[in-house]
Amino acid sequence: MKTILVTGGDGQLGMCIQAVEKQFGGGNNFLYLTSADFDVTNSSQMEDVIKQHTPAYIINCAAYTAVDKAESEKEIAFAVNAEGATSIARLCNDYGIVLIHVSTDFVFEGNTPLPLTEEMQTIPTGVYGESKLLGEKGIEEQLSTYFILRTSWLYSEFQNNFLKTMIRLGKERDELSVVYDQVGTPTYAKDLAEVILYIISSSSKSYGIYHYSNEGVASWYDFANEIFKTAGITINLKPIASIEYPTPAKRPSYSVMSKGKIKEDLKITINHWTTSLGNCIKNI
Questions:
Q1: Can you tell me the distance from the alpha carbon of 154 to that of 159, in angstroms, rounded to the nearest whole number?
Q2: DSSP, residue by residue, 99-113
Q3: What mean pLDDT value characterizes the chain?
Q4: Contact, 95 vs 52, CB < 8 A?
Q5: What CATH number should be reported for the domain holding residue 96?
Q6: Residue 247: inside a domain, yes or no?
Q7: Which residues are paired to 60 by β-bridges?
Q8: How far apart are CA 204 and CA 140, in angstroms?
Q9: Cα separation values, 87 from 75, 101, 118, 140, Å
Q10: Band of pLDDT at residue 197, cut at 50, 70 and 90
């Protein structure tokens, strides 16, 4: 029986892992740790926890994800996303632990309308993306037994996310405007959780950086439109340009990721985003 530590265990992805872990059997011992239990900015606390539980894997879901707020809270974002990830990798190397780390499409500039591969140049445009990219580089420098999974537009029935915000606003308002010129792929966090657990259950040693999202392409407007249609909500939904909805952090205009590598190396199939959205709304 393996012990698996899940950091950020009370966050969206951590809760999704908890929801699907029994599907993978194996009798593994999962420990879901909050930031109080396992503070990624506190190396000595992390080491004490690792010594106590001797995990085979750490799934790092802990992250500073407030994209706009990061522009004014740069130190906190870098402490968690960059220095924290690097510290975890260093401890994983010291104690022979495999690290599964979750990263983001925000490491890319997103100005080229081509599916993003793992080999493409990373040029983040904001503090959040910069901090996550520095975390990736820290992991690569400290450790060889790692999986970095870059994902995009995560949603689920847990915690706060775009899906739940749209459903709430759709019940409160008659009209809503959503940007149409930022294009990517929505990703059901339970699907990502299943891929993470498959990596563990299959004892994969195909280490490296991977892209994972659901299949297909959408703008935020398309995503919102499908949410309302699937949830049976009637609303006047208006498409607007990003310039009409300015935010402190610049978003990638095109962040559709190629899943060729992860499908080939891990032999997985991936749902279309509309299929997974339907599954999630049924669960809600």
A1: 11
A2: EEEEEEGGGS---S-
A3: 97
A4: no
A5: 3.40.50.720
A6: no
A7: 7, 101
A8: 18
A9: 16, 12, 23, 12
A10: very high
| Span 59-74, pLDDT tens digits | 999 999 999 999 999 9
Domain extent, residue 196, equals 3-156+186-214+257-270
Q: Which amino acid is present at 241?
A: A
Catalytic residue among 32, 57, 128, 146: 128
User: pTM, whole model, 2 decimals?
Assistant: 0.97
Kindly tell me if the per-residue pLDDT of 26 is higher than 80.
no
Q: How far apart are CA 281 and CA 275, in angstroms?
A: 10
Give the count of beta carbons closer than 10 Å to the beta carbon of residue 124. 20
Band the pLDDT of 24: cuts 50, 70, 90: confident
Into how many domains does the chain fold? 1
| Tokens standing for residue 263 | 């499908």
Q: In this predicted structure, what is the pLDDT of residue 127?
A: 98
Q: How distant, in Å, are the alpha carbons of 93, 154, 173, 189, 200 from that of 50?
A: 12, 28, 48, 26, 18
Q: Phi and psi dihedrals of 48, rounded to 5?
A: -60, -45
Tokens of 193: 């959780």
Strand partners, 219: 183
Confirm whether 128 is a catalytic residue: yes
Distance, in Å, from the CA atom of 166 to the CA atom of 125, rounded to the nearest integer, reads 26
